[in-house]
Amino acid sequence: MSQILIGKGMHISKGNGNLVITLEAETKIGQDVADKDGNSMGRIFDIFGPISTPYASIKLIEGYPMGRPAGKQVFLGERPNKPYDKRKNRRDRKARSR
């Protein structure tokens, strides 16, 4: 499976500790992102800046070894499939108990 490059790292935000990247591909808030080895880095927290050269803020996973973010490639990550929807399961249990 080929990885989709979505941007390159610029710096770590001083305010909230998020990684700021320049976007090179279309993406959405909430999508998982990974490094070049396929290790999950975190999720896209915000997209901002001009339309011609947008930026994204990535909320990193706690304890992720970032190192030097400048120029670090960021790829679209994969979200693991969840076995069930907790909310739906809760409703089913309620209906069965009646």
Topology:
Layout: E1 5-12, E2 19-23, E3 32-34, E4 40-48, E5 55-60, E6 73-76, H1 86-97
Describe this structure in words.
This protein has 98 residues and is mainly beta. The chain is built from one helix and six strands, in the order E-E-E-E-E-E-H. It has one helix at 86-97; strands at residues 5-12, 19-23, 32-34, 40-48, 55-60, 73-76. It has a six-stranded antiparallel barrel with strand order 1-2-5-4-3-6.
Strands of the biggest beta sheet: in what spatial order? 1-2-5-4-3-6
Radius of gyration: 17 Å
Kindly state the percentage of residues in helix: 10-25%
Mean pLDDT value? 82
Largest sheet: 6 strands, antiparallel, barrel
| Silhouette | globular
Strand content: 35-45%
Ranges with pLDDT <50 over ≥5 residues? Answer: none
Q: Please work out how many helical segments DSSP would assign.
A: 1
* SSE topology string: EEEEEEH
Number of strands: 6
Instruction: Decide which structural class fits the backbone.
Output: mainly beta
Termini, distance in Å? 47 Å
In short:
With 98 residues, this protein is mainly β. It is 12% helix and 36% strand.
Task: Name the features.
6 strands; six-stranded antiparallel beta barrel; 36% strand; mainly beta; 98 residues
